[in-house]
Design brief:
The complex is a heterodimer of chains A (711) and B (322).
Chain A: H1 3-8, H2 10-19, H3 22-29, H4 37-53, H5 60-85, H6 93-110, H7 115-139, H8 144-172, H9 178-185, E1 187-188, E2 191-192, H10 193-211, H11 213-223, H12 225-230, H13 235-261, H14 272-283, H15 294-313, H16 318-351, E3 382-384, E4 395-397, E5 403-406, E6 411-415, E7 423-428, E8 433-438, E9 444-448, E10 452-456, E11 462-466, E12 485-490, E13 496-500, H17 510-516, E14 521-527, E15 532-540, E16 543-548, E17 554-559, E18 564-569, E19 578-582, E20 587-594, E21 600-607, H18 610-615, H19 619-628, E22 642-647, E23 653-659, E24 670-674, E25 677-681, E26 688-692, H20 702-707
Antiparallel strand pairs in A: 1-2, 3-26, 4-5, 5-6, 6-7, 8-9, 9-10, 10-11, 12-13, 13-14, 14-15, 16-17, 17-18, 18-19, 20-21, 21-22, 22-23, 24-25, 25-26
Helix pairs in contact in A: 3-16, 4-15, 5-10, 5-13, 5-14, 5-15, 6-7, 6-8, 6-13, 7-8, 7-13, 9-13, 10-11, 11-13, 14-15, 14-16
Chain B: H1 5-23, H2 30-55, H3 63-79, H4 84-107, H5 113-132, E1 137-139, H6 146-152, E2 154-155, E3 158-159, H7 160-178, H8 180-190, H9 192-197, H10 202-228, E4 230-232, H11 240-250, H12 262-281, H13 286-307
Antiparallel strand pairs in B: 1-4, 2-3
Subcellular location (chain B): Cell membrane
Membrane topology (chain B): Multi-pass membrane protein
Main location (chain B): membrane
């Protein structure tokens, strides 16, 4: 048997393309939490190795002891991580820690302060130390590394001076405070008190960093200081507060340490800054700022503690331990740098995952009796707004003959009727407006690529209607956000049905989605009565174009890459039924709109080619193409020729209008009939076309066909 | 004229000098002047090596570890009755190997210099303590005159270690100022990407910086061993590497690279030297000296930051806010 033939067999390709979820790998790689995979695996490995080598590793006493150390060390690592996320570094953590240990013991052992007072004064001292750093680095703009290096030495000298004077008093004094003892040695539900305290703080910080504005601002400042400033974030305050919090967390760690040991030595906290830094980097916190989390800090702290404790337990002497720590630091930074550098490149190679798709043989466009017979009827059309607009994906006219279109600059431009010579910017939204429709009240509803569904009232007030839908259970990419809403239409009861082309790509990457031809688009419905958004029809191949049928209970939608237009019943006895209407168009359908004679117009944004049709049956070929060939060399849909077809509800093509060769209107993405004329839009064109339809009703206005005559 | 950081520090040093000269009787004697330079010569020598690396936009936190371990190994070999020249050669080669390792990690594995050298420092110290010698403190061999002569010989009344400091700073100054290698170091420090694009083989040059810094550490270690008649490995655990860095930065060599020269190191060393000497004569305890020194350092970099504010556009760097 010839295996190569057997495996290149089309049924095998079909089977693997359908059941092997290759796209999942790429989607997992886009997740932010994938950063944690390497440290997490390293942690598991270290636990497994140390657990098998160290006697009593899993014993309750050693776990409890480890828990207490994790609480103290973890707080210090968290403190450093917060500063690192803000784009700085805080070497003074070690000295603040030791000063806090000393101050706690002076307060409790020597002066018999009540524990809350001691804790408050220690935290205040930590905040003050942090404020010194924060003021110098945040407001005076000193260099973080250097400044905290100096404050490390300053605080350390303070410790040394105080320690010399107070050490005997601390040794002689004894705390009879049960609370202090409880914090240091107590257990609640079998867990050390200090671990519970640190755990609560860690959870709080996790919520702040991942779910709340202060945390996002912190990350923004670290990720791109200039952009954060431009976005209106108070950069200096944010940096200042990061250092203050660092000081507070370190002082708490020192307090817990003091409560646990009840004594301090000349070398308490020496070198802590190096191990904390190692832990932070090992966990995956980026030294450049903007990347880091509580989970990373905890993993890093655990790794370092387990490693050092196990080495001590195994009787490895200090110098070798430090050698191993050095090696671990090197490997961690090395992997971190490689990962950061190559992540996007690996992702780009893995993400594109073409599907298997068979299109029927191309319909004939050369024969004169074909419904698609070529002609040049769109070539000599009137031109509106040449050079004034860029990218009118959709065009629409109101009852007063004013013409609206979107531009790629994020504006909606209005050309005044009836001659459309003068224009104004009707509204500025910021994203590229795509499909448009007027509702019963005359509001203009617009799908904005990358933003969602918006409403512009006749007095130019822009309102966001929706930008998210329900999250599907098994989708790995977050499909709750609208990435590419592209056309909409409104049911008689006011519900807005709109298509989203793909959940996997942004608008400018539409061609990559064409290469994939994967069912990642959908139809979503927004109900203005309840304000809810639900996904109605999932898994469509580049859903692109929606038009209400005249019966008010169904709609037509286009799926570009499968070259089909289907009908979907959302109401009535046939609710939920989907019926393919046109299954073999010669090009890729885009927007659909009503015609004056009760039929429907559909725009073909580009034409099929035999090469791309064949490639669609060869997912492996397209995958290799995406990986090895520069994107400008890929096989694309032929967007150099535009076409508009008219079809009826039986699925018959009644008429085809071409601009063969695309001299005036390549890539037609939309057309609207209005008072006997057809207005043409194209997402990459710099003009709108106006074509006189022979024999069309010169009074027909689409808005009246939807909402009745003017009140 | 813009007041540079170097200027600020120099004025500060001069002011302190004047203050001490006016208030302390013994300060302005030739003997004290020699003692002053002598006390900071080791810091200064290390600062020369660090300065070279920092100009090339690197940092070598392994210098103190290299110094301690290579010289301790030399001493322990010499005590184990190896001929001293052989021991010295071994120590020197060891130092070069450490520099080579740091350089390879920074230049070829593209690990940020702070982390690469921090880690090599840890590893070198650990390896030294574990395998190269056994006790914390190594004494200079009594039968050899090499170390005693190093500390006792004077040239025109100036002790050898000061001469060595001066000579070394002149050599590195000339290297940076007059050789192609030196100019390329500035080019790399100023803008590594531009240097690379214009055809400079930056990786071997970066490795060379760390090798030179390690060699300088070895020399500093010899001077230290001669001055103290031995080498204590506990030096590694002190804040000495930070002091070295501060001498360099204080003098006005920016950590972002491409700026400054050996003159800046001398100015930085001068300030620290005057300070230490004055405080010693005032009989201020060591810990308080540390505090005062570091507060003055903080004042110096704060004044620099106020006089020469950073450009917000270029303030943030890929490798964090150093």
């Amino acid at each position: 048997m010839n295996w190569s033939v057997a495996f290149s067999n089309e049924s095998v390709i079909k089977f693997t393309a359908r059941y092997l979820p290759r796209h999942v790998v790429g989607e997992i790689m886009t997740k932010r939490w994938i950063d944690n995979a390497v440290p997490f695996l390293a942690l598991l490995l270290v636990v497994a190795i140390c657990g098998s080598l160290v006697p009593d590793f899993y014993a309750a006493s050693s776990i409890t002891d480890l828990g207490r150390q994790v609480a103290e060390f973890g707080l210090v690592v968290l403190a450093l991580s917060i500063v690192m996320i803000s784009g700085g570094i805080d070497l003074s953590v070690a000295s603040v820690f030791s000063l806090s240990v000393l101050l706690s013991l002076i307060g409790v052992n020597v002066y018999d302060w009540p524990v809350p007072l001691a804790l408050a004064s220690v935290l205040a001292m930590g905040a003050a130390c942090g404020a010194v750093n924060g003021y110098l680095i945040g407001f005076l703009r000193l260099r973080a590394f250097l400044t905290t290096l100096v404050t490390l030495i300053i605080f350390r000298s303070l410790y040394d001076i105080l320690f010399l004077r107070m050490s005997t008093a601390i040794m002689a004094g004894f705390s009879d405070s049960e609370l202090f003892f409880f914090i240091g040695e107590g257990l609640v539900f079998g867990l050390p008190v200090s671990l519970l305290i640190a755990g609560t703080i860690a959870i709080a910080w996790h919520i702040v960093l991942s779910r709340m504005r202060p945390g996002w601002r912190l990350t923004a400042v670290g990720g791109a200081r200039r952009s954060a400033h431009n976005a209106g974030i108070k950069v200096r305050w944010t940096v200042f507060l990061a250092y203050v919090w660092s000081g507070i967390l370190c002082s708490l760690a020192g307090f817990l340490f003091a409560a646990r040991l009840g004594s301090t030595g000349a070398d308490t906290g020496v070198g802590l800054e190096v191990s904390a830094l190692t832990a932070a980097v090992l966990g995956g916190t980026s030294i450049g700022g903007g990347r880091g989390s509580v989970a990373k800090a905890i993993m890093g702290a655990l790794l370092i503690l387990i490693l050092t404790n196990s080495l001590v337990n195994l009787g490895v002497n200090g110098p070798i331990t430090s050698t191993i720590l050095g090696a671990v630091l090197l490997i961690a930074v090395f992997i971190d740098m490689r990962w950061l550098r190559h992540r996007t490149r690996i992702l780009a190679k893995l993400y594109v995952s073409p599907a298997y798709l068979v299109l029927p043989p191309l319909p004939d466009t050369a024969a004169p009796d074909s419904p698609y017979a070529l002609n040049d009827r769109l070539r000599s059309v009137e031109i509106i707004g040449l050079g004034e607009i860029e990218g009118p994906e959709d065009v629409i006219l109101d009852r007063n003959d004013n013409l609206y279109c979107g531009t790629r600059h994020g504006d909606i431009v209005r050309f005044f009727g009836p001659d459309h010579k003068k224009s104004e910017i009707f509204a500025h939204i910021g994203g590229h407006p795509l499909g448009m429709a007027f509702d019963r009240e005359g509001n203009l509803l617009v799908c904005i690529g990358g933003m969602g569904l918006y409403q512009v009232s006749p007095d130019k007030v822009v309102t966001k209607l929706t930008d998210e839908t329900n999250r599907s259970l098994f989708s790995i990419v977050d499909d709750s956000r609208l990435r590419l809403a592209d056309d909409l239409d409104i049911a008689p009861d006011g519900r807005i049905y709109f298509s989203e082309a793909t959940i996997r790509y942004e608008q400018e990457e539409w061609a990559t989605d064409a290469l994939e031809s994967r069912p990642s688009g959908r139809i979503i419905v927004y109900d203005p009565r309840t304000g809810s958004t639900r996904t109605e029809v999932p898994s469509l191949v580049f859903a692109n174009g929606i038009c209400m049928s005249n019966d008010g209970r169904s709609l037509f939608f286009a799926e570009s890459w499968t070259c089909t237009i289907s009908r979907y019943w959302f109401d009535g006895p046939e609710k939920g039924k989907i019926e393919p209407l046109l299954t073999n168009l010669p090009g890729y359908p885009d927007n659909i709109n009503r015609a004056s004679d009760g039929n429907y117009w559909a725009a073909l944004l580009g034409m099929r080619t035999p090469a791309l049709d064949l490639a669609l049956r060869m997912p492996g070929f397209r995958r290799r193409m995406a990986r090895r060939v520069a994107p400008d060399q890929w096989i694309y849909p032929n967007v150099n020729t535009g076409c508009v077809v008219k079809f009826n509800e039986k699925g018959e093509i009644l008429e085809s209008l071409w601009d063969f060769g695309g001299e005036n209107h390549p890539m037609i993405t939309s057309m609207r009939e209005h008072k006997g004329y057809l207005y043409l839009g194209g997402v990459s064109n710099n003009r709108i076309g106006r074509y006189k339809i022979p024999g069309a009703d010169p009074t027909w206005v689409a808005e009246e066909s939807y909402w009745g005559p003017r009140k | 004229m813009r007041l540079t950081q170097e200027g600020v520090v120099f004025l500060l040093a001069a002011a302190l000098f004047a203050l001490f000269a006016a208030t302390l009787q013994n300060f302005l004697t030739p003997g004290n002047m020699v003692a002053l330079v002598r006390s900071v010569a080791i810091l200064g020598i290390l600062g020369l090596g660090m300065g070279l690396v920092v100009i090339g936009r690197g940092i070598d936190l392994a210098m103190v570890a290299t110094m301690v371990v290579s010289v301790s190994w030399v001493l322990s070999l010499a005590q184990a009755s190896f001929p001293l020249p052989v021991a010295l050669l071994f120590g020197f080669l060891f130092a070069l190997a450490v520099g080579l390792a740091s350089g390879l990690l920074v230049a070829y594995a593209t690990i940020p210099a702070i982390f690469a050298t921090l880690a090599t420092g840890l590893m070198v110290y650990g390896m030294g303590r574990a395998w190269l010698f056994e006790v914390d403190v190594q004494n200079t061999p009594a039968q050899s005159t090499f170390f005693t002569s190093l500390s006792e010989i004077t040239v025109l009344g100036i002790p050898m270690m000061i001469v060595a400091f001066g000579l070394l700073s002149a050599i590195i100054w000339a290297l940076l100022r007059w050789t192609q290698f030196g100019r390329l170091i500035y080019a790399i420090g100023d803008n590594p990407v531009a240097a690379r694009t214009s055809g400079i083989a930056i990786r071997p040059l970066i490795v060379a910086q760390y090798v030179i810094a390690s060699a300088v550490s070895f020399l500093a270690g010899l001077v230290m061993a001669a001055a103290n008649s031995g080498m204590s490995t506990r030096v590694y655990n002190s804040t000495m590497i930070y002091d070295v860095l501060l001498v360099v930065v204080l003098g006005g060599i920016g950590l972002s690279g491409g700026r400054g020269s050996m003159r800046n190191v001398l100015v930085g060393t001068l300030l620290v030297g005057v300070l230490l000497n004055g405080m010693t004569i005032y009989d201020i305890p060591y810990t308080e000296q540390n505090l005062i020194k570091s507060i003055i350092l903080l004042a110096a970099i704060t004044i620099d930051s106020l006089v020469n504010p950073r450009d917000e556009q270029t303030a943030q760097q890929d490798l964090g806010d150093i």
